[in-house]
Amino acid sequence: MGQVQKEDENNINARIKTAGDNFIRNVGKIVTPRLKINLEERERSVDVYMPYARKFQYEVQIPIPKGFAVEGLDKLNSKVENTTGSFLTTATLDSGTVVIHVTQTFKNAFEKAGKWPELLGILDAATTFEDARIFFKKAVGKIILHASIILRNNPKTFLI
Fold first, then answer.
1. Could you give the percent of the chain with pLDDT greater than 90?
2. d(CA 89, CA 110)
3. Which end of the chain is more exposed for a tag (fewer CB within 10 A), N or C?
């Protein structure tokens, strides 16, 4: 299967919020929008028919701007697996780039209505991920102050 690279600068910039010198990047919305199940749709008595069993895989790479550190990657790691499929996400740092892998799998084209709660678990995990964010914090480097103090003509340097 071919690899698709998609970048819409207006869309991407719209998902960045500033917070002082820092900024927050909504990464969950980079991956295609998810199916949200309304309250009235959460109960189901009819079997579920899908076009076919399928698997969606996404890799998102976000370079970390110079002078920034990343917070919140641990919140992007999730795993929901059951007999109907799975929703898995991982986030790592690789050479100054945040790398996010998202995999959503539907194992079957048909599920009995009794399996609907399991299918909901996968759909709900995807919906929750849609709100995932990374916090880019302005990095504060180590500040080393050099102070020379002369005591009885004996110079000493202290690192503070």
1. 58
2. 25
3. N
The three state secondary structure string of 46-64 is: CCEECCCCEEEEEEEEEEC
Q: What is the residue whose two structure tokens read 């678990």?
A: 121
Task: Identify whether the C-beta of residue 121 lies closer than 8 Å to the C-beta of residue 81.
Answer: no
Selection from 4, 29, 52, 16 nearest residue 100 by Cα: 29
Token pair in block for residue 56: 């969606």
118-132 average pLDDT score: 93
* CA distances to 25, 146, 155, 159 from 150, in Å: 50, 13, 5, 15
Separation of alpha carbons 84 and 89, rounded Å: 17
Biggest CA pair distance of the chain: 91
The sheet with strand 16-19 has its strands ordered as 16-19, 22-26, 133-138, 68-71
Q: What is the pLDDT of residues 61-84, one digit of tens each?
A: 999 998 899 998 999 999 999 999
Phi, psi of 120 (to 5 degrees): -60, -35
| The model scores a pTM over 0.90 | no
Residue 122 in tokens: 């996968």
**70 contacts 99 by C-beta, under 8 angstroms:** no
